[in-house]
Amino acid sequence: MPPARDAMANRGDDDEVCPVCKSSRYLNPDMQFLINPECYHKMCESCVDRIFSSGPANCPVAGCHKTLRKARFRKQTFEDINVEREVDIRRRVMQILNRREEEFDSKRAWDDFLEQREEIIANLVHGTDVAKTEGDLQRYASENMRSIRANQAREAQEASSFKEQQTHEQELARLRREAAKQEYENERRELQASREDVLTRLAAGRPGDAAAIAREGKKVLLKKSSARRSEEDRIRQKQAALRNSDARKAGQAGTAADKADAAGDSGLIKGLKKIVTPEPEKPYDPFGGIIPNKRDYYTLRDYYPSSYLDPLRQDTRMQAGGYDLQEYYSRTLMEAFAGLGCFIDEEVAQRDPAGSLGASGSVATQGASLAAVSTAGTLDPS
Amino acid sequence: MAVSPSVLYPASYEAKVTSTTIKPDANSSENSSYQQNQFPPSHSNNEREITEQLNDDVRLKYIKDKRLGEGTYAVVFLGHLRTKPASFVAIKKIKVNAEYKDGLSMDAIREVKYLQELSHPNIIALHDVFSSKDQNLNLVLEYLPRGDLEMLIKDTNIHYGAADVKAWMGMLARGVWFCHENFILHRDIKPNNLLIAADGEVKLADFGLARSFADPYLNMTHQVITRWYRPPELLFGARQYSGVVDIWSMGMVFAELLLRVPFVAGNTDLDQIAKICEAFGTPTEDNWPGVTKLPNYLPTDSSHVVPLQGRDFFLRQFPTAGPVGADLLMSMCTLDPKKRSTACRVLQHGWWSTEPKPTDKKNLPRKPDGIEKMGHDLTRRGGEVDDTTFKNAARQLNFSGARG
Amino acid sequence: MIEDDFYRTSSQYRLWSFTEASLKAQRATTNAVASDRVRAAIRRAQEARRSATSSATGTPVPEVDGGGGGSTSTSTSKAEEKPIECLTPEEEQQTVSYYCEQIIQLGEAYKPPLPTIVRATAIQYLRRFYLTNSPMTYHPKQIMPCALFLATKTDNYYMSLRQFADGVPGDTTADDIIAPEFLVMQSLRFTFDVRHPFRGLEGGILELQAIAAGQGQPAPHAPPTQNTPELLRRNLFALPPPTTTTTTSTNPQTTTSSSSSTTSTSTSTITSSTPATAAQIKDRIARAHHNTRELLKSAAQITDVYFLYTPAQIWLAALMVADPPLGEFYLDTKLGTPPTTTTTTNDQTSGQLAALRAKLTQTLTACATMLRSYHPLASDPEQMKTLRRIIGKKLYHCQNPEKVNLSRPGGGGGAAGAKRIPAAAAAVAAAAAAGSGAGESGTSESEMERLAKKRKLEQGAARSKDIFGGELVMQRTKGDHH
Predict the structure, then answer these.
(1) C19-49+85-193+382-408: which CATH topology?
(2) Does C413 contact B133 at a Cβ distance shorter than 8 Å?
(3) ipTM score above 0.90
(4) B188 tagged catalytic
């Protein structure tokens, strides 16, 4: 799409003429010019209305066969239509290639990305390799839809939260001012009250006590106000702490969602951080991945008849101390079967191949893999 | 890791461990001597005995860097793997010949015995044990540079909320549950025994008072658990008890996290009992059958009987926990151990799934200067009490400094 | 299986489990290393003495062979002449086994006797210790009390060293007992937990009793056919009596483990045709419980089963020895009947269970065979004769002279292991001079033989009185000396 250079040549204020209907601003001071980012050919508002109101049509400029829609016509922001066009291209590319610095492994990778983005923009602006560049861009866009959306959302959020924060801060300042005012008021009132108190006491008491009463009154006052101040401080701090932790949590939720994209590296962008775990907001598992009370060889009962253990149930002292036979049952049965299916001769031979010190995998891993093997079957009762 | 009684998740678990611990060089060093029972082949010159060779293999894996803390009982060093300077460990050197004439002290034995068997993300990892010259015992422990919960509770510059408390409690409860699943009582749960790893994970440490569950009819000592965290049955001298003694301590830690001061802090054992009664209610035969038969039970003046506290009390005292959290706390602080929640029940509680969600461990409030604190915590002497002669209640509980 | 992974985290699995071959290789290595060192040390000692005798007035250096008195010079010159004969790995093993039995005896002598579990732990400590150490380097008589004391500490049966030492016969002092503690701990690679089969047996018995009471709980993966408590109970009551070798209709494969067992006490009147009464079953379970426990206390301790099998396998194998049909029955309730009745292996679960069952039968049979093979040394005159030769004579001559003294500071930790602390050495020498028995190898060969003969006459009479098995005369008492 070569820019309409001839249109550019035509500039000026009063002598500006619509290239389509040839009416000039001189005659029609309210005339508005519009452009369409398809071809950037300028025309006046009435021409646009006239030609495109009934649906898409070809650009009326001679030699330009672009199909234009009325909806996409807009005012020109920059005087130079070339700048206008470059800005449009830039905006479009940036919306697709909207990776953020923290997504890259290194500063270097980030810089490379920025450079690459500029090159793509330059290609599109200057019309070099347009087809290939556009192709790459489209492919990237479709492959990284989620990450693009997430980053867009994040940008929007950042913008709005910045605004919010500003209003929030103003609100806080207002509250602080009010609180200070209130506090001052309280103090004033209390001062008044205590003065009155001192006066009444002076009036009632003997003359010798006067100094003492006055001193005391002052002290009480001081104590009261400092106590109140520290109490208020404490409450304020607590509130601040809660707010902080809430705000942090909101932030976290955002990051977690962004990470949800498993970055299908289209090959266009290099050096992206490997996203370790997609962690789609797993529910919190208090047991940390272990299934409680799961057993394979036995089912634990609440009670086992035993002439040896039964007296214990009647022993008040042991009961009062909390001794729990259930714990004993659980232990004896676990120990009865722990390792029943461990065949030492095989497992140890595998684990410590003769003579090779430290060449085998760790026991834990081995245990885990063995466990995986044993569950691979249908032994899971659930 | 150790595979916990889990079949379904071992792989992910393993990954978790690898990311949180230093995992001494996955391929060679750890396996060579710690994990395997391959003994080195006979050397032609036989300069050293086999046991010495084995020990040296372990000893030479680590390099001691600097001293982090020193107590009468142990010195803690920062160290690292020889092959991997970035992998830090804490080396706790126990002075064997210190003062104990009956050989290695019980707390060192207990700590080594139980940590050798336990492997869980919320329990401090014992990577290796070796001896150095002059018969010193060196425990190579997981490096936990972010201090402990006590530090966070006390530091008024640190603000935290309900979600953070939930995250910490969750990790603590998992650690305790895993101990109990392995039939081990910790018997000294308190904030300064809960250390924090670089990634924010809470780790249960100091197994100097730990022991395995007692078989029926066998006695255990009641002189365990630091007083403020000691459950009423131990204060009353019970000799047969269960895992829920640790749950009470957990409840006290929970309350302390919410209040930022110890909840029930008695000056003496008697004072502790009095304060517990005041706070939670007076134990009676009605609310705790058999309590009056416990060896050290003291009848309360009938005029001072405090009724058992209900949910309202907990909700009023701990508004931050919310109604569900208050309910959980109440189930952990039940006077009668028979009615108290077990570790498993604690983890099955609804609080964990109610809002707010526990904070991700990476985002938990942190203090930068925790390394020194770890040094202090690890030099502290664990249990000093033996199981049969409880009359010389030897465990020093120094609350003024909170560490001895 | 979840329970198996639970066991795999234990230090017993990680560090102290072996194949038969690796166990044998380990013992051979230890023996070879120790023999080399012993030969070198004795040679050094002889050279030192030769130079000492030539330079000094000719008095023998007491420390080299313990200062045994007049016969020292003769025995030394003898040793110089003939090549030093070291113990073989098998002889070492026999020696260790003997001292393991002594631990049981010693534990019995305390009032109250030390708990079975403490003694069993001590025995396993001793056995683990001698995987990397040789009796030629460290005499078991020195290590044994230390292992037992350590076990009291690690198994929560705490008593003071003083108290403990009072129970040890002879003139073993508290310091003697505690001296090798660090060495022992280091050899145990600082793993103190021993997984025993005792508690597991209790669990199995609890389940069997529940089944007998009609409260049996089906195993999670057991075939549904055996799943009701009532069926479990009925099958239990229909079991053939323990001593017969007849196979049941349900278990044609039980012959593997049904050879005659130690349950000779069984005078039960149960026959395979009539179902037993509740009392008879209760009695049978109690008897099986007792006999299995006895096996676990003896055969399981002294043989290699702890190294080769898991505690769950050990107690089940012992139950198979004590009451084969009962053991088979119990296993059936868990994993189903053996797979040879191949008609019903259609679904995968039972197929896997069957495979596990088949493998387990093999393992349990091997373990049971090992348990059956055990005969207490002390009650077998033939074995005692051999032992006397090994410990009394051979070990005496190939004891590493540089390791006799294990006094505490520096007595084994790292490179300091071989160092002597002058004060302690002096104390030993003084004790020897005072003729107070000097414990440490102070007896001449001829004297040993004489005593052995004397003991032979007394054999049987007071065998269990002398805790250290007086026949072996390593531990002298005052009266015996001259």
Answers:
(1) Cyclin A; domain 1 (1.10.472)
(2) yes
(3) no
(4) yes
